[in-house]
Write a structure and sequence with these properties.
The two termini are 21 Å apart. Strand 2 and strand 3 (59-60) form a beta hairpin. The chain has a single domain (2-20, 30-290), classed as SGNH hydrolase (Rossmann fold). The longest helix is centred in the C-terminal third of the chain and has 32 residues, at 198-229. It contains ten helices and nine strands. The strands form three sheets. A five-stranded parallel β-sheet has the order 4-1-5-6-9, with helices on both faces. It is of the alpha/beta class and 292 residues long. Helices cover 46% and strands 13% of the residues.
């Protein structure tokens, strides 16, 4: 098993070198953009996983872009920021472009974006208080994910304009609560156990499914528009479904949790976010999607 793993890692490193052109001499010679650029929300920022390299954005050195960059041999330039919507991602791209951090020499861009467009964090904050009725009402209020498909088209269009030669990897989101037949404990709040019912968990999971579906439809819409202007060709955009990777590792599952529950103190900002193991799962899922 170890020999096979080493061989796979070596193959991935070789393919990454070809994709990114990551030798130090090559990077120094091409100033128009970093080889690997990451944009997105708190998932891409690694929020909740200390230490932070950017306290304002709650951006962690344990975030998946840094893990993936280590696998590919290309340190990322990350603008991911906690709380970012798709509009925020467009602003991240504008800042990167103005700084010359993304451009014609960028070979990979990863993006995780869309959940914050739904008011998802506000609903989770209500659920954290522990009132089951208010929680269920808050979750039901955001069941409509709105124009996320069109917003995804806008994000992909902006990335392609900024990095014309890059492979774009766009990720979805994991279902937070997994499978449960009853009430499950998801941490603590104000000294008491925090729990969600099976119905609340199902609603929350269905919302994530809807977000992922809208992102996928946005990608399809983008590819249709791209093909119209490029002689029927599809763009180099790779979808990354992480729901399978997190199966059995959500808050209500019996396996090791890859998502942080509610807690007090300096780790409270990580609630409902991938922990260190979850960030590793993201990096591995993206690497596997890029491997072909």
């Amino acid at each position: 098993m170890k020999r096979h793993a080493l061989a796979a890692l070596a193959a991935l490193a070789l393919s990454a070198t070809a994709l990114l052109g990551t030798s130090s001499a090559a990077v120094a010679a091409v100033p128009d953009g970093a080889p690997y650029v990451a944009v997105g929300d708190s998932i891409a920022a690694g929020t909740g996983n200390l230490p932070y390299v950017d306290a304002a954005c709650l951006r962690s050195k344990k975030a998946y872009p840094h893990l993936l960059g280590s696998m590919l041999g290309a340190a990322p330039v990350s603008a991911a920021c906690s709380g970012a919507t798709t509009t925020g991602v467009l602003q991240q791209l504008a800042v990167l472009d103005a700084a010359g951090a993304i451009g014609t020499d960028t070979r990979l861009v990863t993006v995780t974006s869309g959940a914050n467009n739904t008011g998802w964090q506000n609903a989770l904050a209500v659920c954290a208080v522990g009132d089951p009725v208010a929680c269920q009402q808050a979750l039901a209020a955001i069941a409509d994910v709105g124009d996320l498909d069109a917003d995804t088209v806008a994000v992909l269009t902006a990335i392609r304009a900024a990095a014309p030669h890059a492979v774009i990897a766009i990720t979805g989101y994991p279902r937070l609560f997994g499978s449960t037949g009853g009430t499950c404990t998801i941490g603590g709040y104000q000294g008491a156990p925090a729990k969600v019912t099976a119905q609340q968990a199902a609603i929350a999971n269905s919302i994530v499914n809807g977000i992922n579906l809208e992102i996928a439809q946005g990608l399809q819409g983008y590819q249709f528009l791209y093909a119209q202007t490029h002689g029927g060709m599809l763009d180099a955009v790779v979808p990354v479904d992480v729901s399978g990777a997190f199966a059995g590792h959500a808050l209500c599952d019996t396996g090791d949790r890859w998502i942080s529950g509610l807690s007090s103190g300096n780790k409270s900002d990580g609630a409902f976010h991938p922990n260190a193991a979850g960030q590793q799962a993201y990096a591995a899922a993206i690497a596997a999607a890029l491997a072909p």
